[in-house]
Design goal:
Four copies of one chain form a homotetramer.
Chain A (H helix, E strand, L loop, with lengths): L4 E2 L4 E6 L5 E7 L9 H11 L16 E3 L3 E2 L2 E2 L4 E6 L6 H4 L11 H8 L15 H17 L3 E9 L2 E2 L20 H16 L6 E8 L13 H10 L4 E6 L10 H4 L3 E3 L12 E3 L7 E2 L2 E2 L4 E7 L9 E4 L5 E4 L10 H23 L7
Chain lengths: ~375, ~375, ~375, ~375
């Protein structure tokens, strides 16, 4: 469990530190025959890169990807796809100070406790930049899924106290909205809220929701490798995510069986009835997963994102000598992690679904 | 991803169906030298077995475990530990009917969609009896952890609308309480609520909370194999669990950075300061995990358990011909899954922590 | 690497000691829909059980298998298949003595060095009885492969100095021959040789050869998971095997490129030419594998089996106090391991091929 | 089993094609605290690079390595170590022709059969250049092992019909000898033999032997993950290797138990006797492994390397239309693979031992 490899058959191996020479990922297990260009990858990296708005750090990172292997004449060959993003000369000076103490809410302390020391520059491996490899690999997974009719829609459901109004849901504006909100009014309110927090040197959290459409029923394995268990593993492995729920999620704790159960129905019946294409559910409290396998309905999950821990407001902590001190985190930081995390959540979801599809092959003897 | 094997180094392979000849588990990777008897295992199986109270199914299952290998003269040998629980003659008649249709909230449909058919007797592999193997293996993990000073406390936090009152928290009564609630008043209220539901042929959900104490800081791997990601994978793999959260969990979505960050403090400072033993946090919003690694504070998570899907109240669904029908689930079913799931949650948590401890070895070169 | 689990998708988890309550295996990842009965398994267990001739130990072991899960109404369900073989009351007395010293050629010393102690009864986990689980699982793999036209033929190529004469190769007699030799003359000579060794309280080694026919070209992964690398891992994991070679094997060290290269040819050419079905090689020096992938020719490998280390002739060794002593191994032992190992080799080969076939699925995007 | 990842805990993920932009490897699971520079890696890459003598291809490849992550201030951090070697502009023209047919002894056909097409430039992923990643990762493993007193010595045992004379064994000259032979006379003879083959446009095979000293007894897992099974998997995954044997290897097939068993002895006896440090074997027929675990003696294995399949002498094969043709492989090729493969074998052996050491941790409860 070295910890930087994800997937059973569609395996990704990410690497790189915030202020190292570069970051990247190796994708081992991508099927041969997929048309792939650097533009396919760049499109998604651009959605996570900083400086997209006043709500994302203004660090000047281009994050241009280069594909180094696994693609021949524009098509994947079935061999490992290595992708790299060079770090531009980072201002390590910004970080020299934090080498001496432990930032609240960060992994500084746990890294030192585990390894005895750490690459303190910009958080090193625990920096949000680690997700570059996830997004680059996720872009391939998303393209693969599109060939099988699977579509993933991920958006910001809430920021601090401001929730989107489902009645105003406008998918078309997600990628253009500064906060990835599908509801313009909510986005404007949230921006005002964030402006205030920023002026106070503070930050806030939010909720990201993900919808996965087009997954055939029966995906996922019955016991430990349930589809929702694998998705939870994938999403909870993203820094700053503190919880995940499927369908009615935590609300089921207050519900009764008659409220929570979804009735099955069928488009047709009789001799032409097809179990895998004609069945639907009248409701979707389950969030598209039953017994760990996709049930043909939309897969729905939400995850909670904690506030950016880097805040300029004064905080108490200790230095490496165990002395209590007051610190104020300098540097350029996002007042909210959510908007840039949306594409990361979508990437991890796509990687999980692709892996489940590949692992599902051969589960039954076709006569 | 055949799906019935869990763990990287402390691997468990569970097997068995509700109405098959037996159920069991093989534990591969348990260190040699652990004193182990069948009584150590039986103690935990008894906590999950049915018929413990009017709130758990009265099916007469003894679930007596037999250790078949891996233990010599009362001590583990380092070779696989095989444990088996024979099924007593089950009344398959109870289940012949459900072979023909898809129970709402169950895996009947997804199994058929995936495999084309299923062992319909008592839910087959998707039955709650599948957790027998998890609990038997978990008992070994819990005993191992106790040698390293790790203690896990798992309990019922809420049932339907009734929450425990933290002020009344009484750990000593968890295992004796019919509902595994550490608050007598809450338990009495919940029992009344359940009595009413049962009379209506209904069921309800609840929340289970788990506290893990004594974990050294630095456990868990920084990227994909974060300790909270592995725990989420383990817990979400339990049937009926629809969500999990750590520390402040979903509440972080409404919090600010200054509210959510935990300040570090030290018991002592200066030359005797020890990073791994002297540091503590003044609060524990993080739930004991930072950057995917244990931070030395109590690890805290909660998971949402859905209502028992088997209810006698009439429900609409379809049969194998796609015809809509109304069904009423017969047989003896728990009106609430939570009490018996508590030990399953504790087992999966223990298995995850033991595995993380074994995988953490050798992460640093000790000079 | 707990070490008792084999396979990436068709995973088997074996367990059990020579003198424990039972031995067995859990097969996780077997496709649903395979007709399977205990007779299918017993047939292969009978080929490895002792007492088949004067050249195999006369220990009275029936080794009757029981299928405990994963099969419903005579067909595999896609869930784990657990199989168990009870040990009959073993005469542990036979083994009490060897607890005190280290038998030459056995794992007694390495077990103690690794774990500090061992289950010394009949070799415990390192006993040949460990292979019961491999053969039970292998029987399923062999039946699966037959559905895909893959046939495995395994036999004794040599015993001590006696080799079979390819000109006399008679496949039909392999399973009936006491020594699993396809050449009657060689078998008679070998039996005479073994009679002499037995009278001297000695033993000898031999070579097992395996032919795999019907494997489509392209099976196996290009780099680390080459088909021959996976087969070598599987075969070398069998106790007593000291070497393996494919095709011309070690002879290639003396050959030139023009001698060793196999020329490709085609049954037809032109528009109807099919790359996967029409190509053949005029020779098969490669043993059916090129670049780690099957090349459509017969897969051929040989493995060397060491002499039974348990011999009654006096040997020097040390006891647990480090004192040198002379020992004579009592008990009933095979003068030759080869005949009973033939089915074990075939089982491991089958498990490897099935796993490679399942892992090969989805390697290319089918349009 | 995507196939380009090796190791359970010390995991390496290699990538890259012969004529792609670059080749490299990501090492996930290297312990923190190891001093590491690019010079440590380059030293081993230089041993495999072409153009070292007239017996290795004269392609002008510098193969300069760059470390992109996982090292901070000259020490490994415990995070993934990414290493890259840029390909210099390759003359793809050399290879355009072979795109149309299948070279005997190469993976051209099996790649097309598996994927439907291939990167034909210089063999693409099946090129010997794939081993650059193995050697770069192996260099780290070798440095790690040196800290634990483990030393690996790998050399050319034979080339064609010429064997080294053990009596002349001179370890000091291995790395300076053009053919990596520890026997000057044999090397001179072999060079003459190779000169003749080259003039004929032919090639030949040979044998590489590897000695591993300093491994504590008890390394390796008893059943499937035997140390010799893992080493066989690793070594057989190297292109051109057709067989492997340990200790007496295939000779055991002709030996008797009394000849093959190694007697245990002890340096001392009595109260000071230490099982793990005082025991030795009077002989080493086992090659340092008993029951799949290291027995404290030198680990010895040999592997057979086939002749370079690329020869300019005319050969018969087929083109993509299934038409038989005669070809003569152009380009610059080694007349012998062995000398450059020596460091690859040593690298794979080191990676296997390091992984086994890490997986061995925690196998016993230390009180």
């Amino acid at each position: 469990m070295a910890g930087s490899i994800f997937g059973e058959k569609f395996k990704i191996s990410t690497w790189g530190e915030s202020h190292g020479a570069a970051l990247g990922v190796v994708v081992d297990g991508c099927p041969a025959g997929l048309p792939l260009t650097e533009a396919d990858i760049q499109k998604y990296l651009d959605l996570r890169k900083p400086g997209q708005s006043e709500y994302t750090t203004s660090r000047g990172e281009d994050d241009m990807v280069e594909i180094l292997s696994g693609v021949f004449e524009g098509v994947t060959t079935g061999t490992p796809i290595s992708m790299i993003v060079r770090n531009k000369s980072q201002r390590s000076a910004d970080y020299s100070e934090i080498a001496s103490y432990y930032r609240p809410g960060h992994a500084d302390y746990t890294f030192d406790a585990k390894y005895g020391f750490r690459d303190y520059r910009g958080g090193g491996r625990s920096s949000g930049r680690e997700t570059i490899g996830r997004v680059a690999a996720g872009a391939i997974a998303i393209k693969l899924l599109s060939l099988f009719g699977v579509k993933i829609t991920t958006f910001t459901k809430s920021i601090g106290p401001i929730d989107i109004n489902p009645a105003n849901f406008d998918e078309s504006r997600i990628l253009t909205d500064k906060l990835r909100m599908p509801d313009e009014n909510a986005s404007i309110k949230a921006q005002g809220y964030l402006d205030k927090l920023r002026s106070e040197g503070n930050s806030c959290g939010g909720i990201i929701e993900c919808h996965i459409d087009g997954v055939v029923p029966g995906l996922g394995e019955p016991v430990f490798d349930k589809l929702d268990a694998r998705l939870s593993y994938a999403i909870m492995s993203i820094g700053a995510i503190k919880g995940i729920e499927f369908g009615d999620g935590f609300d089921v704790a207050r519900m009764t069986g008659s409220e929570n159960n979804d009735s099955f129905a069928s488009k047709i019946s009789g001799s032409n009835f097809d179990l895998t294409t004609d069945v639907y559910k009248k409701t979707n409290h389950s969030g598209g997963v039953l017994g760990g396998m996709s049930d043909g309905s939309q897969i729905v999950f939400r995850c909670a994102v904690k506030p950016t821990p880097s805040i300029s407001a004064p905080q108490r902590t200790i230095n490496k000598n165990g002395e209590e001190i007051t610190v104020s985190i300098k540097g350029r930081h996002d007042p909210i992690i959510v908007p840039r995390a949306v594409v990361v959540v979508e990437s991890m979801a796509a990687l999980t679904i692709v892996d489940a599809m590949l692992m599902n092959m051969g589960n039954v003897i076709k006569s």
